[in-house]
Specification:
The termini are far apart. By secondary structure, the chain is mainly beta. Helix content is 0%, strand content 53%.
Length: 189
Amino acid sequence: DIRQVFYRIYEPRSSDHVTSGTLSHIDTVYSVNFSFTIDRSDAGTYRIEVYAQDQSNLVSNSLQTPLIITRNNSVPQTTNIVTPDTLKRPNSGFTLALFSLAVSDSDGYSDIEQAFFKRIFPSSSNAISLFDNGDQQGSGDLLAGDGIFSRLVRIDSTAFLGDQIFLFQAKDKTGAFSDSLTHTVTIIP
């Protein structure tokens, strides 16, 4: 005889459950109404697991089914690029320049996966991550979690002279990209 039937609901890509409980029964039908609250950015495929326990406390195998929660995604918004307009190339050693970008997302701050920049002229470079970690010495970021993503960039004696165009962008957890913003930095001897 079945003593009790249990359920758990697991977060997407996680072994943590958001809620759990027992099912009630009438005759041989077990059911439950459940509710839980998630942040808008926590959309994804949740997993419902159900298992039974008999009078001897033996546990059955579990049955699982997906619960897909979707949302209309908003792309991140980028504003307020902060970079020098002109930089002097050092003859030796290096100098540091602060690059930063404000990023917001109406789906919530936790939906922002990455903010980055890359040089697109005179030659293309790989994406270079910006950080919102409050590490003033490492990344140049003043305050963690404020939506201002920053990076200290090393300019050394091998830097290209002349105008360099940088593209700034952000990406959210669904892979949607913000509009591209560009800024020109002139490197002088």
